[in-house]
């Protein structure tokens, strides 16, 4: 069995979800070949790096523009036609010829749109059939129309709420699997936290290291009684140099691809409400406290986590005192962790096994 996962690095969440899916699929199908392709980089190898940098610049410093575009397209219809569609279609046809997949999984809406469009174009041609099932994996707790395409065979969604929203958009319930957002196996197998004399607080700024700049914030964290703080600055080397080694109760780290090792020790995580991080914390059963969300997707994620009672959203960026209050309230933390356990159990019941069964079924039907 050959499975092709199409994604893009518009933020590292889509890429991380793809790698996690690959890991889970290989565990379920040890003899399968599962490839992950950065589709925009394949189509535009000389321009993709600049495109990704521009995207990061917009979401960091031009959130109003990004949110305006997001809201406008949210009022649009499904089956959207992306720019440069002709070029993308030709390059996707090349990829399918190269990998000859039995199934395609898209973890970015652009990839889902192009694969759906290619299947539609093939159906219009005589003696041409593109009978490759398309699975779309939604990587935020939302159902923006850009994810919805008529030639998608199955949707992998993070929650019951997103499933119901897709149904309202006309997607048949049997084509929607509640899988959560894929996370690496390491987050599913964290050891039990042993009793200790101090609390552990984990603060993460994502790959870009987007964290408060005021020193007073870190000075306040350093003064929380009986608490050790770990700060992961990602690729923000400037911030790392500013913070490292300055406070006795704060350890500062740069980029790491072993975040689960720090979640295993944490009593609470402070971070932005990205979809991947949210579900990593759910599987790790570590309550999450998020910065005030700026992007529309993150706002949706934040509403969902507070609605589930698994975390809290800061009212402002200067939130050290509120972090202190929650961290020292063992009852609130325990209640949030218990609700996370319930969410996780539901996902494991519905989970990735349904995806594997669907892929296996589509392969048998094609045989």
Q: What would your notes on this structure say?
A:
It is a single chain. By secondary structure, this protein is of the alpha/beta class. It has 15 helices and 12 strands. It has helices at about 10-30, 40-45, 50-60, 65-75, 85-100, 110-125, 160-170, 185-190, 215-220, 235-245, 260-265, 275-285, 295-310, 320-325, 330-365, and strands at about 1-5, 35-40, 105, 135, 155, 175-180, 200-205, 225-230, 250-255, 270, 290, 310-315. A 6-stranded parallel sheet has the order 2-1-3-4-5-6, sandwiched between helices. A 6-stranded parallel sheet has the order 9-8-7-10-11-12, sandwiched between helices. The longest helix has about 35 residues, at about 330-365. It starts with a strand and ends with a helix. The model has no long low-confidence stretch (mean pLDDT about 85).
Q: How would you classify the helix and strand content by structural class?
A: alpha/beta
Q: Count of DSSP helices?
A: 15
Unreliable stretches covering 5 or more consecutive residues: none
SSE pattern, N- to C-terminal: EHEHHHHEHEEHEHEHEHEHEHEHEHH
Q: Average pLDDT, to the nearest integer? A: 87
Helical percentage: 40-55%
DSSP strand (E) fraction?
A: 5-15%
The backbone outline, from C-alpha atoms, is: globular
The whole-angstrom Rg is 21 Å
Number of beta strands: 12
Largest β-sheet summary: 6 strands, parallel
**Which strand order do you get reading across the main beta sheet?**
2-1-3-4-5-6
For the terminal residues, how far apart are their CA atoms? 11 Å
